[in-house]
């Protein structure tokens, strides 16, 4: 049977992808962050996942304001990097796992979660930057990826608790898939940042550190915080962090932290990555 072997929370700052793509990782600005990543990459490599369920948000690349699914799952065999205005990133295509994606869709339906089915979808920095963080610059991504897209762009986004419960449903789905697959669930986005409006530039380090600590210890604080509180504390784009709750819900109650890096500033955000295994 398939099983969940790890969970990752990770920021998706587009400038991190650009730094990697344009050989800037050893510049004074980026070195402190990129020098920390080999340890995370080794942990992922040792974990040897076959599939990553990559929870991310689209930034009006695949979807527009005309159509905003709250939760959409990609069933395609392959997803192309999206053109976000500068041409698509020159990175490998992202290969999916249609059989597991369809199984998750069906299992979630029986768990009262009706996911929007995306049979064709380009994936933007929300999905591809975490892949760069996890795997650097390979010829081909070493895992299959099931993109699970969450609306955190247009109010109202789903609550953190709703996301947590979807994570639980995804765990049930994965654990009932008959093939022996090693699956990692990644929740991406965040950490605190606000790109727009009067509060543009918000970074709340205290909130972020507490959020990271709570994930393994007292996640109920993160889980039951309203989405309005997320926005107030972490900024209008910090709401992306509700997606980490899907990862947390997919993991068991007791988890062990294997890696963490928190770095301010990365572009306009606090960058965070945290890695867990079930205890
Ligand atoms: C930035 C962060 C994001 O999460 C994003 O989607 C776009 C830009 C930034 O920090 O610049
Ligand atoms: Fe974002």
Please characterize this protein's 3D structure:
- The chain is of the alpha/beta class and 279 residues long.
- The chain has one domain (3-20, 33-278): LigB-like (Protocatechuate 4,5-dioxygenase, Chain B, 3-Layer(aba) Sandwich).
- It is built from ten helices and ten strands.
- It has helices spanning 14-21, 31-34, 37-47, 98-110, 125-135, 160-175, 205-216, 220-223, 227-234, 244-250; strands spanning 3-10, 51-56, 71-74, 78-79, 94-95, 116-118, 144-150, 182-188, 255-266, 269-278.
- Strand 9 (255-266) and strand 10 form a beta hairpin.
- The longest helix has 16 residues, at 160-175.
- The radius of gyration is 17 Å and the shape is globular.
- The mean pLDDT is 97.
- It binds 3,4-dihydroxybenzoic acid (DHB) and fe (iii) ion.
- Fe (iii) ion binds at residues 12, 59, 126, 189, 237, 240.
What is the β-strand count?
A: 10
Coarse shape: globular
Look at the helices and sheets and give the structural class. Answer: alpha/beta
Q: What is the radius of gyration computed over CA atoms, rounded to a whole number of angstroms?
A: 17 Å
The CATH topology name reads Protocatechuate 4,5-dioxygenase, Chain B
Please identify which CATH superfamily we are dealing with.
LigB-like
Please state the average pLDDT score: 97
Low-confidence stretches: none
Order of helices and strands: EHHHEEEEHEHEHEHHHHEE
Biggest β-sheet strands, sense, barrel: 8 strands, mixed
Terminus-to-terminus distance: 19 Å
Query: What does the oligomeric state look like here?
Result: single chain
